[in-house]
Write a structure and sequence with these properties.
Ferritin; mainly alpha
Protein backbone atom coordinates (compact mmCIF):
# COMPACT_ATOMS: atom_id res chain seq x y z
CA UNK A 1 0.00 0.00 0.00
CA UNK A 2 2.86 2.37 0.81
CA UNK A 3 4.47 1.72 -2.59
CA UNK A 4 1.20 2.56 -4.32
CA UNK A 5 0.75 5.84 -2.41
CA UNK A 6 4.30 7.00 -3.08
CA UNK A 7 4.03 5.94 -6.73
CA UNK A 8 0.87 8.01 -7.12
CA UNK A 9 2.63 10.97 -5.51
CA UNK A 10 5.47 10.73 -8.04
CA UNK A 11 3.02 10.14 -10.90
CA UNK A 12 1.36 13.44 -10.03
CA UNK A 13 4.71 15.24 -9.83
CA UNK A 14 6.09 13.72 -13.03
CA UNK A 15 2.98 14.24 -15.12
CA UNK A 16 2.75 17.76 -13.74
CA UNK A 17 6.24 18.37 -15.12
CA UNK A 18 5.11 17.10 -18.51
CA UNK A 19 1.99 19.27 -18.42
CA UNK A 20 3.87 22.41 -17.38
CA UNK A 21 6.56 21.73 -19.98
CA UNK A 22 3.93 21.27 -22.69
CA UNK A 23 2.21 24.48 -21.66
CA UNK A 24 5.50 26.41 -21.70
CA UNK A 25 6.49 25.21 -25.16
CA UNK A 26 3.33 26.71 -26.68
CA UNK A 27 2.75 24.03 -29.35
CA UNK A 28 6.45 24.19 -30.22
CA UNK A 29 6.70 21.02 -32.32
CA UNK A 30 3.92 22.27 -34.60
CA UNK A 31 5.35 25.75 -35.18
CA UNK A 32 6.87 26.88 -38.47
CA UNK A 33 10.11 27.56 -36.63
CA UNK A 34 10.52 23.91 -35.59
CA UNK A 35 9.11 22.41 -38.77
CA UNK A 36 11.63 24.39 -40.86
CA UNK A 37 14.68 23.30 -38.87
CA UNK A 38 17.09 20.74 -40.28
CA UNK A 39 16.17 17.75 -38.12
CA UNK A 40 18.04 14.52 -37.57
CA UNK A 41 17.14 11.72 -39.96
CA UNK A 42 16.37 9.54 -36.92
CA UNK A 43 13.77 11.97 -35.54
CA UNK A 44 10.77 9.81 -34.63
CA UNK A 45 7.22 10.73 -35.68
CA UNK A 46 5.38 13.04 -33.28
CA UNK A 47 3.14 10.39 -31.73
CA UNK A 48 6.21 8.49 -30.47
CA UNK A 49 7.05 11.35 -28.09
CA UNK A 50 3.70 11.06 -26.30
CA UNK A 51 3.95 7.28 -25.95
CA UNK A 52 7.59 7.48 -24.87
CA UNK A 53 7.05 10.18 -22.23
CA UNK A 54 3.99 8.44 -20.81
CA UNK A 55 5.90 5.17 -20.45
CA UNK A 56 8.98 6.92 -19.09
CA UNK A 57 7.08 8.84 -16.43
CA UNK A 58 5.18 5.76 -15.25
CA UNK A 59 8.42 3.78 -14.93
CA UNK A 60 10.27 6.71 -13.34
CA UNK A 61 7.46 7.23 -10.81
CA UNK A 62 7.63 3.62 -9.66
CA UNK A 63 11.45 3.84 -9.63
CA UNK A 64 11.30 6.94 -7.44
CA UNK A 65 8.77 5.29 -5.13
CA UNK A 66 11.07 2.31 -4.59
CA UNK A 67 14.03 4.61 -4.09
CA UNK A 68 12.14 6.92 -1.72
CA UNK A 69 11.08 3.93 0.38
CA UNK A 70 14.75 2.94 0.74
CA UNK A 71 16.17 6.41 1.34
CA UNK A 72 14.40 9.71 1.68
CA UNK A 73 17.23 12.09 2.46
CA UNK A 74 17.70 15.69 1.39
CA UNK A 75 20.22 14.88 -1.33
CA UNK A 76 17.76 12.52 -3.04
CA UNK A 77 14.97 15.10 -2.85
CA UNK A 78 17.25 17.83 -4.23
CA UNK A 79 18.47 15.61 -7.07
CA UNK A 80 14.88 14.81 -7.97
CA UNK A 81 13.83 18.48 -7.85
CA UNK A 82 16.75 19.54 -10.04
CA UNK A 83 15.78 16.83 -12.53
CA UNK A 84 12.16 18.05 -12.41
CA UNK A 85 13.19 21.66 -13.09
CA UNK A 86 15.49 20.73 -15.98
CA UNK A 87 12.78 18.51 -17.47
CA UNK A 88 10.35 21.43 -17.54
CA UNK A 89 12.93 24.07 -18.48
CA UNK A 90 14.13 22.36 -21.63
CA UNK A 91 10.70 22.76 -23.27
CA UNK A 92 10.65 26.48 -22.57
CA UNK A 93 14.26 27.08 -23.55
CA UNK A 94 14.18 25.07 -26.76
CA UNK A 95 10.65 25.46 -28.13
CA UNK A 96 9.52 28.77 -26.66
CA UNK A 97 12.76 30.76 -26.69
CA UNK A 98 14.32 28.94 -29.68
CA UNK A 99 17.59 28.86 -27.74
CA UNK A 100 18.93 25.65 -29.24
CA UNK A 101 22.39 25.88 -27.63
CA UNK A 102 21.01 26.56 -24.16
CA UNK A 103 18.50 23.78 -24.75
CA UNK A 104 21.37 21.45 -25.53
CA UNK A 105 23.14 22.43 -22.30
CA UNK A 106 19.89 21.90 -20.38
CA UNK A 107 19.25 18.45 -21.83
CA UNK A 108 22.86 17.41 -21.25
CA UNK A 109 22.44 18.46 -17.60
CA UNK A 110 19.17 16.51 -17.38
CA UNK A 111 20.80 13.44 -18.93
CA UNK A 112 23.68 13.74 -16.45
CA UNK A 113 21.27 13.86 -13.52
CA UNK A 114 19.33 10.81 -14.72
CA UNK A 115 22.67 9.04 -15.23
CA UNK A 116 23.54 9.86 -11.61
CA UNK A 117 20.28 8.26 -10.48
CA UNK A 118 21.06 5.18 -12.54
CA UNK A 119 24.65 4.83 -11.33
CA UNK A 120 24.36 5.98 -7.71
CA UNK A 121 21.36 3.84 -6.79
CA UNK A 122 21.76 0.74 -8.96
CA UNK A 123 23.29 -1.35 -6.17
CA UNK A 124 20.58 -0.29 -3.74
CA UNK A 125 17.66 -0.97 -6.09
CA UNK A 126 19.28 -3.77 -8.11
CA UNK A 127 16.92 -4.99 -10.87
CA UNK A 128 14.43 -2.22 -10.04
CA UNK A 129 17.00 0.16 -11.56
CA UNK A 130 15.76 -1.07 -14.93
CA UNK A 131 12.77 1.22 -14.37
CA UNK A 132 14.94 4.29 -15.02
CA UNK A 133 16.59 2.87 -18.15
CA UNK A 134 13.81 4.04 -20.53
CA UNK A 135 14.27 7.62 -19.25
CA UNK A 136 18.04 7.38 -19.67
CA UNK A 137 17.82 5.93 -23.20
CA UNK A 138 15.20 8.45 -24.31
CA UNK A 139 17.34 11.31 -23.04
CA UNK A 140 20.29 10.00 -25.05
CA UNK A 141 18.09 10.06 -28.15
CA UNK A 142 16.64 13.49 -27.30
CA UNK A 143 20.11 14.89 -26.66
CA UNK A 144 21.28 13.62 -30.04
CA UNK A 145 18.24 15.23 -31.72
CA UNK A 146 18.92 18.56 -29.99
CA UNK A 147 22.63 18.34 -30.86
CA UNK A 148 21.85 17.65 -34.51
CA UNK A 149 19.60 20.71 -34.67
CA UNK A 150 22.27 22.79 -32.95
CA UNK A 151 25.03 21.76 -35.34
CA UNK A 152 23.01 21.77 -38.57
CA UNK A 153 20.99 24.99 -38.23
Amino acid sequence: MKLLKISIFFLVLNFSALAIGSWLMENGPMTNWYMNLNQAPWTPPGWVFGVAWTTIMICFSVYMAYLFMEISNLSLILLYLIQWIFNISWNYIFFNQHAIGYGLMCIIALTTIVTLFLINYRKLLQFKSLLIVPYFLWLLIATSLNAYIYFYN
